[in-house]
Write a structure and sequence with these properties.
Blueprint lengths: L4 H6 L2 H5 L2 E5 L5 H10 L2 H5 L5 H22 L4 E7 L2 E2 L1 E7 L3 E9 L8 H15 L3 E7 L5 H6 L3 E6 L2 E6 L1 H4 L1
Parallel strand pairs: 5-6
Antiparallel strand pairs: 1-2, 2-3, 2-4, 4-5, 6-8, 7-8
Length: 175
């Protein structure tokens, strides 16, 4: 089994057991990352009167804006592409602050959802933070089906941000 340097660095044993490896994003990954982003918004745009071409243009513009925002406001983040069987399957962006770990984004292509990859990775991220005595936070859309997973893992809503909830997992309660 090939274990990436990223996985070894962070000790993500569950992710390894699930067959995941990781690599850092590169400029050539932008089309793939845009596709992952678009896959998270497909249902939302399904009811709009936009044509497929308009939806694609909108998604591309939104992805570029989000990507620029993330790069600017999370300069020290790890920008990772999770892979399974050598295939790129999603994106994971995480920044480790002195006070907490912030999951900026975690998303998988639809055909790779519901297979336990997200839960394995999240549990590894929680273990990593707990080992440092840090909480983990993430913004989650209220209608995101993964909300149940976050709640099951012990995340609670800290702040209502409109469309999103700022959720926090507290290391002190994990013991």
């Amino acid at each position: 089994m090939q274990i990436s340097a990223v996985t070894v660095r962070f000790g993500w044993a569950r992710a390894v057991d699930a067959g995941l490896t990781f690599r850092r994003i590169a400029d050539g990954d932008l089309p793939f990352l845009a596709r992952v982003y678009a896959a998270t918004r497909t249902e939302e745009l399904a009811t709009t009167p936009l044509t497929d071409e308009q939806k694609a243009a909108f998604m591309e513009q939104q992805f570029r804006a989000q990507h620029a925002h993330y790069q600017k406001y999370y300069p020290n983040a790890d920008w990772l592409v999770p892979m399974h069987g050598g295939e790129d399957i999603g994106r994971l962006y995480i920044e480790r602050w002195p006070s907490q770990h912030r999951i900026i984004d975690i998303a998988f292509l639809p055909e790779h959802r519901g297979k336990g990859f997200g839960e394995a990775l999240l549990r590894d991220l929680l273990d990593e933070a707990a080992a440092c005595g840090k909480d983990v936070s993430i913004h989650v859309e209220k209608v995101n089906p993964a909300m149940r997973l976050y709640q099951r893992l012990g995340f609670t809503t800290e702040e209502d941000k409109g469309v999103y909830d700022l959720m926090r997992w507290t290391a002190a309660t994990a013991v």
